[in-house]
Design goal:
- By secondary structure, the protein is mostly beta strands.
- The protein folds into 3 domains: about 60 residues, SH3 type barrels; about 60 residues, Nucleic acid-binding proteins (OB fold (Dihydrolipoamide Acetyltransferase, E2P), Beta Barrel); about 60 residues, OB fold (Dihydrolipoamide Acetyltransferase, E2P).
- It contains no helices and 16 strands.
- A 6-stranded antiparallel sheet has the order 1-6-2-3-4-5, with no helix packed on it. Strands 9-8-7-10-11 form a 5-stranded antiparallel sheet, with no helix packed on it.
- A hairpin with a 4-residue loop joins strand 15 and strand 16.
- It is elongated and about 70 Å long.
- The N and C termini lie far apart (about 55 Å).
Amino acid sequence: MSKASEVRPGNVLRFNGELVSVDEYIHRTPGNLRAFYQAKMRNVKTGKLVEYRFRTDEEVEICRVETKDYQYLYEDGDFFVVMDNESFEQFNIPKLLFGDAAKFVTEGMSLMIAFESDEPIMGQTPTHVELLITYTEPAVKGDTATNVTKAATISNGVEIRVPLFVNEGDKVKVDTRTGEYVERVK
């Protein structure tokens, strides 16, 4: 157990039986009252934001979290099978940890996964991925108004919106956080 004064933003705590990531941690000394720490924490599993005031001498449990890059191999039901690049050990990681970005994961991609005592708690994909356009309607001649987009299907079957000049067979960069088109890759 550690004191509340030892907590820093980015730490993972066990708070009320749940794992929470500390987003913001501020020391407050209001007038003639006792000092306290104001914390904004995000539940690792649900993403729910929690605010709490810690006394300066309150004991908290700081969890040891190991974060490492793993190579994505294949999909197995509700899990991604990933491999440690150093030991070649394979792990089944729940897709839920990646959120909406899970639909942009492709074979051989490097994924960042955080473990707390052999249990995967967080998963993160690269912020941008390059994918091939497998199908899109051709642009209509003369339809060149600014910011007009059309639907396009990328190599993993997901449909995104792209500008009119993007054609079938082009490679595009997609933001995995929002699922939006970023640019065409040469």
